[in-house]
Amino acid sequence: MVKMAAKLINCTKEEQRSVIRFLWAEGVPGAQIHLRMCAQYGDKVLSRRIVYEWIEMFKNGRTSVTDAECSGRPPTATTTRNEERTLELIRENRRSKQQSLQWKHPSSPAAKKFKM
After folding, report:
1. Which residue has the higher pLDDT, 54 or 84?
2. What is the pLDDT of residues 21-78, one digit of tens each?
3. DSSP class of residue 108?
4. How sure is the predictor about 17, in pLDDT bands with cuts at 50, 70 and 90?
5. Residue 18 sits in the same domain as residue 50
6. 33 in a structural domain
7. Which one in 58, 77, 95, 105 has a CA-CA gap of 20 to 30 Å to 46?
């Protein structure tokens, strides 16, 4: 086993998926990949099942390690227009709280829910 200089405490799923892809491409078996990742990532490691799922996806030709886009609600509503509107609301009243801004902002779920 390879001795690691330091454990990686902060890591992303994409980082771990990249490690899986790299080691798989070198011909390292799935069990060994997971074992090496456990040594490096500790309790933040992806599960053995997920490691094997990603190995299968790479075997089937997948090259990307990022999550596929999903239908439904977008992960964020950040746009230049929304940012400008939020700054405008803050400038109007510097003592505004997040909750009150939420009701005034047209793209917030709270404002949309009660919009007539």
Report:
1. 54
2. 999 999 999 999 999 999 999 889 999 999 999 999 999 999 999 987 766 666 565 6
3. S
4. very high
5. yes
6. yes
7. 77
7 within a domain of the structure (yes/no): no
**Domain span holding position 47:** 13-59
Stronger pLDDT, 113 or 101, i.e. the higher one? 101
**DSSP 8-state secondary structure symbol assigned to residue 31:** H
Residue 46 in any domain: the answer is: yes
The answer to whether 39 and 4 have CB atoms below 8 angstroms apart is: yes
Report the distance separating Cα 88 and Cα 81, nearest Å. Answer: 11
Residue 58 corresponds to which tokens in the numbers above?
């790479």
Cα separation, 82 vs 107, in Å, equals 8
Instruction: Give the total number of structural domains in the chain.
Output: 2
